[in-house]
Structures are given as C-alpha cells and as structure tokens.
Design a protein that fits this description.
alpha+beta, 2 domains
Length: 192
C-alpha cells in the first residue's frame, strides 16, 4: 500500500519522463489531477511504512502456536524486503527533486552576429505542478533551433525563453509547449 501511495504521489512527475521515453510527450499532463492529493498520499505512505516498521521491530511475546516448526519466514516478510521497499518509496517520493537529471540539456552555440535578433518572452503556462513539469517544458523548447535559453517555473506558471528571432518565432515556441501537454493561457506576451 505504501509503495502504491508513493508511486501515485509522484506520478505527475514520472509520467512526463516516461512519455518522453515513449515518444508521446503530449500525454504528460494527463495525471496532473493527482497533484492536489500529493500531500495526502505522502502522508499515507509515511503512515503505512511507519506501521510496517513498528510491527517488524516490536518485540513479540512468545506464544505457543501450532505453526510449522523450523519454517523460515518468507522474504516478503523480512526486514531486508521492508528496507528495500522503504528505499524505493523514498526514491519515488523524492523524484520531483531530481527529475531534471532525465532531461538532457542541449548545448547551444550562438555566434555574435546573431545576437542582433535575440528576443526574450515570458509565456504564461497552465498545467505545471512540479519541477518535473519545468524540466519537461524546457526540454521541449530547447529542441527548437535558435533557442538560447529557456527557464520554466511552476510556481509562477510561466516560462522565460530567450531565442534568435531569425531562427524561430513565438508561435513555434508555443507549439512546443503545447506539444508537451501544457496550455499557453495568454496570447499577450511580454517582450524585453
């Protein structure tokens, strides 16, 4: 149960990575409805794991039972298995904190003559819920030719993109964001 709750609590960050691996990045935001339940799922995970460790570590009273003599406890009932599950659950719960490691950063090379066409835009985006969403959007936008730098923020609900206007344009950037499964919510963009 703890493992299931841990996976559900981080599913909104796991799905974009899996979607990119599968080549279907538009499916990335289909799990965002779970984000408001994340604290509840994390609490349930910690509670269930805590109870499992409590039961495993408490001293049991010697009782006379008619159990099989000399039988070894199953691996699934061992402390080692519980430790492995606890490690896996911790890894899954912390996934939003290191998800950006799964998105390779493209090296951008710009020559000085192209700096004349550099533009910076702020694009309001709906559907981001964690750092995994930020990394997903940055990954998709950075694929475009002429994008120098992109920075998404789920807290602000926006992305800042610096790009060469002679190589790409705002509609292409918006299309990349939407193809990742997020929604551009405002057509008025601030340019610097």
């Amino acid at each position: 149960m703890a493992l299931g709750a841990a996976i559900l609590s981080s599913l909104c960050c796991i799905v974009p990575v899996l979607a990119i691996v599968a080549g279907t990045s538009g499916l990335a935001t289909t799990i965002t409805w779970l984000e408001p339940m994340r604290p509840l799922l994390i609490g349930a995970t910690v509670l269930v794991l805590g109870l499992a460790w409590f039961q495993k570590l408490r001293r049991r009273k010697e009782t006379q039972c008619q159990c099989e003599a000399g039988g070894r406890s199953k691996f699934v009932q061992s402390k080692l298995f519980l430790g492995i599950v606890t490690f896996f659950v911790g890894t899954i719960l912390l996934f939003p904190n290191y998800v950006d490691l799964f998105y390779p950063k493209a090296e951008k090379q710009m020559t000085s003559d192209r700096n004349i066409h550099l533009k910076t835009v702020s694009i309001p985006i709906e559907g981001m819920t964690c750092t995994g969403c930020e990394a997903h959007i940055e990954h998709e936008v950075d694929k475009l030719p002429g994008v120098v730098k992109s920075t998404a923020s789920y807290q602000n609900g926006s992305a800042w993109v610096e790009f060469d206007g002679s190589m790409t344009d705002l509609p292409q950037i918006e299309k990349a964001i939407m193809s990742a499964g997020y929604r551009v919510i405002d057509k008025k963009k601030g340019q610097e």
